[in-house]
Design a protein that fits this description.
This protein is α+β, with helices and mostly antiparallel strands and about 700 residues long. It has a domain at about 410-650: Beta-galactosidase, Chain A, domain 5 (Distorted Sandwich). It is built from 17 helices and 20 strands. The chain has an eight-stranded antiparallel beta sheet, with no helix packed on it. The protein has a five-stranded antiparallel beta sheet with strand order 1-2-3-4-5, covered by helices on one side. Strands 6-11-16-15 form a four-stranded antiparallel beta sheet, with no helix packed on it. β19 and β20 (about 690-695) form a beta hairpin. α7 (about 160-170) runs parallel beside α9 (about 205-220), α11 runs parallel beside α13 (about 310-330) and α14 runs antiparallel to α15 (about 375-385).
């Protein structure tokens, strides 16, 4: 059981607290008959009966008294000195959302199981009850046909842990009764395989997720009168089978989040279930793999190798959980001395890509709807606990209540390809994220969108990433595509390669600068220079060069939410916040927080300006309408396609007419437009009568 020291009253001693969470050892745990029927005797062959505390179990078992051996085993599990920091036995709380999940999963609710966040037309989880009132584990709703993630997520049993918490918090036996019925019905439908298997139900995250949650579930249920010796024997046999199945079916990609989840489950099993004969082997195998993963999972700059902030967050949480369990059970000596130091850079990355209002963009497969303030601050505070010496991390984690406000305004992760430009760390600040990942392996969770920018100004996401609408089908391909992002494309095609690199970063008087490059196509390279001028506005210099000829090159801007409008009127009924201009767009929000984007092409060959409505997605199955514009020119064989864009925040929408913005290249003489200069570029930008001369040179 778990000892959460932070939750213990200072008036209590550790021994007193332990006693309070052990439960009553005199609880009725057996029927008077002492009938061993229903007890899975094979459990005793799986356990190390010489483990401290199992002396009575061993004695009764060797005497042939299976019933009392099982009864003593249950008593041991109710009293054992094993501590799980994930489980609070002193004051278990269950959120309204968790309670809803638990209630829907009862039989009375029609076996409505939480499968990710997929819901029916009524906003309820899908019912898996067949016409006879039994569970149909092969059911796939019509709306989910072709959605591979649905069938994977079902077998991760995401409703069972909320049920266990609901039982502990309320004492209502319907939750444990539902769990007993449903879990063992599932095991009957999908028996534990031996050795290697290709069964989807017993592979990847399915098995590791169930294994992980079962270690918590045991702590919540084990003190119930309904948790009998027979039930314990069945549970332990099934748990052993889960762990063995993982070790026989390691995910092939050793540096993936799936492999890490497997290794985490096995390592935790070795620490939290030490009574098994295999426990030492589990811990040794898992610990060795986890130690190796500390470097294998992260790039040199601390970014997870899937380049996805949500997966990054989960991976850091996995390592953190292992650390806390080891700490609680006096096992830290079994891990490298610098275990947490590997995670310091990883923790700072989450801080750096989180917007000042504690939200996140839809970067790669990150769903911003899931990255809520509570989720982010909870994780950030865990990081602060790991690194109490980091005053800036502490400040951000605790919303400025403690620590020191960060001062960095240009933050780069050059090995991975993330660049953050900001003028502060308050909710009223401006922040731009530029993504240009070096990913020759083309990781599945990393979208082919090098060059993309996302923009936050005073609490509003003006250039949100397209996100992930689906994990399968045409929507999967569409939302990932390059042209759905704020970057350069060749004839709207998706990038062939993702090998972004940093060419220059600079902090100078009046501006900060990053220059990146990506050869997205075999015959075309995209170079993007971003100037953050006076901490107020952005100038983006784009150059597309290479051998391709007579080919359209596109500058894409995907804009903010709202249905938008043009001079021709509204495309749909409803509030509109976008006006498409001759060579750009501006917002029309009525809260004094707006931006202008103006784009200028150096050449006019094949010039075309287009705009229409599209979408971005903050969550699987959800989308928000927005406007976009695309500026295109024809690239000549010996020329480059070059654009300058200015992104300028302003106040009231009525003040738009007062804004005057122009921009042009200044490094080519008349008649030489489109000439590419490998060593740098220079432009002149005029904003409301003020001239800005901006340039860079590469070493």
């Amino acid at each position: 059981m778990f000892l959460l020291l932070a939750a213990v009253s200072v008036a209590c001693t550790v021994d007193e607290t332990l006693e309070s969470v052990k439960g009553d050892p005199n609880l009725t745990i057996t029927p008077e008959s002492g009938d061993p029927e229903g007890i899975d005797e094979s459990v005793f062959a799986l356990l190390n009966l010489d483990y401290p505390g199992l002396e009575d179990v061993k004695r009764f078992y060797e005497e042939g008294d299976v019933y009392n051996a099982a009864a003593k085993l249950l008593q041991y599990y109710r009293e054992r000195p094993v501590y799980n920091p994930n489980v609070s036995m002193l004051a278990t709380s269950v959120s309204a959302n968790e309670l809803s999940i638990a209630d829907q999963a009862t039989k009375e609710g029609g076996y409505r199981f939480k499968v990710y966040d997929y819901t029916d037309a009524d906003g309820q989880y899908y019912s898996f009850a067949n016409d006879k009132g039994a569970i149909n584990w092969n059911y796939i709703p019509d709306a989910m046909q072709g959605e591979n993630e649905f069938k994977y997520q079902l077998h991760r049993h995401q409703w069972m842990l909320p049920q266990a918490k609901a039982y502990k918090a309320t004492g209502d036996e319907k939750y444990i009764n539902a769990w007993i019925e449903i879990y063992f019905d599932w095991l009957k439908a999908f028996p534990i395989p031996e050795g290697t298997t290709s069964q989807m139900q017993w592979s990847g995250l399915q098995t590791s997720s169930r294994t992980h949650d079962q270690m918590d579930i045991l702590f919540y249920y084990v003190h119930s009168d309904l948790f009998t010796p027979a039930l314990l024997s069945d549970f332990l046999v099934a748990f052993h089978g889960h762990v063995q199945c993982i070790t026989a079916n390691w995910y092939k990609d050793e540096n993936s989040n799936i492999r890490l989840a497997q290794e985490q489950a096995v390592t935790l099993a070795g620490m939290l279930m030490p009574e098994f004969k295999k426990s030492s082997e589990w811990f040794g195998t898992g610990n060795a793999a986890i130690t190796k993963q500390l470097t294998g999972q992260f790039n040199a700059d601390g970014v997870h190798n899937e380049f996805d902030p949500s997966y990054h967050l989960g991976v850091v949480a996995d390592f953190y959980e292992i650390y806390k369990v080891a700490q609680a059970n006096d096992r830290l000596a079994d891990f490298p001395d610098d275990y947490t130091e590997y995670l310091r850079k990883a923790a700072k990355f989450i801080m750096d890509v989180t917007y000042p209002d504690y939200s996140m963009d839809n970067i790669n497969d990150t769903r911003s709807a899931r990255m809520t303030k509570s989720v982010l601050t909870r994780n950030l505070r865990q990081y602060s606990e790991m690194f109490p010496d980091d005053e800036e991390l502490k400040w951000f984690a605790y919303e400025g209540a403690f620590g020191t406000r960060p001062q960095s305004t240009l933050i780069t992760y050059p090995q991975s390809g993330y660049y953050i430009m900001r003028n502060g760390w308050l909710s009223s600040s401006t922040m731009l994220i530029h993504k240009n990942c070096y990913d020759p392996a083309e990781r599945g969770h990393n979208h082919p969108d090098n060059g993309h920018i996302s923009l936050y100004v005073k609490g509003r996401k003006f250039l949100p990433d397209a996100g992930t609408m689906s994990y399968s089908g045409t929507e999967y391909t569409t939302y990932r595509s390059t042209e759905m992002h704020n970057t350069i494309t060749k004839n709207r095609a998706t990038y062939e390669k993702r090998e972004g690199k940093l060419l220059k970063q600079e902090t100078s008087t009046g501006y900060e600068l990053v220059v990146t490059e990506n050869q997205g196509y075999s015959d075309l390279t995209q170079r993007r220079a971003i100037f953050f001028v006076e901490g107020k506005f952005f100038v983006i210099v784009d150059e597309a060069y290479g051998t391709c000829a007579d080919t359209p090159v596109n500058l894409n801007f995907k804009l903010w939410g709202g249905k938008g409008k043009t001079s021709d009127g509204y495309p749909e009924n409803g509030k509109n916040y976008t006006v498409i201009d001759e060579n750009g767009a501006h917002s029309t929000f009525d809260d004094g927080n707006n931006i202008i984007i103006k784009s200028f092409s150096e050449t006019s060959e094949g010039y075309k300006f287009e705009s229409s409505t599209g979408y971005y997605s903050n969550e699987i199955g959800q989308k928000t309408q927005r406007w976009w514009y695309r500026m295109s020119v024809t690239k000549q064989a010996d020329k480059a396609a070059r654009f300058v864009s200015v992104i300028y925040p302003f106040g009231n929408a009525d003040d738009f007419d007062k804004q005057n913005i122009t921009a042009r290249f200044t490094d080519n003489a008349e008649g030489a437009e489109g000439t590419f200069h490998a060593g740098g570029a220079s432009v002149k930008v005029t904003v409301n009568g003020v001239d800005y001369t901006l340039s860079y040179k590469l070493n």
